[in-house]
Amino acid sequence: MRKFKVYIADDHTLFRKAMVNLLRSFDRVEEVKDAENGKDLLALIKYDVPDVAIVDLQMPVMDGAETCEQIIKKHPEVKIIILTMHDSHKYILHMMEMGVHAFLLKNTEPTELEKAIYSVAEKDFYHNDLVASVLRKNITERKTGQRPHFKHAEITDREKEILILICRELTIREIGHKLSLSENTVRNHRVNIMEKIGVNNTVGLVKYAYDAGIVS
């Protein structure tokens, strides 16, 4: 079973070191490195690219938002999990649009952190209650007549089925098994959906599914 390299950036030393010890206890995490700010994290990534980067939002020198922007620009293969004390939906929505793969509150249970790491590494996104509440609130607050930031697209019933299962965090293989389709067919459908709506990652697919009312 595949194992993962995980880096964490947080300026609170006690919390960061406790997180390092926790991460090392996870069965499928084989290497952990830590940094006290975004600048140091980027230096680590430049030297040796991880599978997952866990980033605190509020840090000195370089904060979480700028750090994530730089990681996405320079190392788009790295999956990013944001740790935050606050569930500010506008901030989370902005960072979803930027391409961040998961959001966890700092009081999250260790089991959820472990699940999130494996999910972003293997499925490109972690769809938890925090993300769902942010997307639902965004739909509620959208002004009458304001259009979602997606291309107009005619999504077929099969594509809707696949989109719903992607939002449920099923892998390509699991979707194929559930719908009696080959993995290549599922993969092709996924690519077609992304092209139709003008997104390039799973985060965009999930956001579209909420905006279009496919997932509620």
From TrEMBL:
- The modified positions for 4-aspartylphosphate read D56
- Domain of life, source organism: Bacteria
Query: What Gene Ontology biological process does one annotation of this record name?
Result: phosphorelay signal transduction system
Keywords of this entry: DNA-binding, Phosphoprotein
Q: Name the residues that span the membrane.
A: none
The yes or no answer to whether the keyword DNA-binding is present is yes
Per the UniProt record, one Pfam family is GerE
Boundaries of every Response regulatory domain copy = 5-121
Report the residue ranges that make up the HTH luxR-type domain in this protein: 148-213
A single GO molecular-function term is: DNA binding
Q: What is this protein called?
A: Two component transcriptional regulator, LuxR family
Organism per entry: Ohtaekwangia koreensis
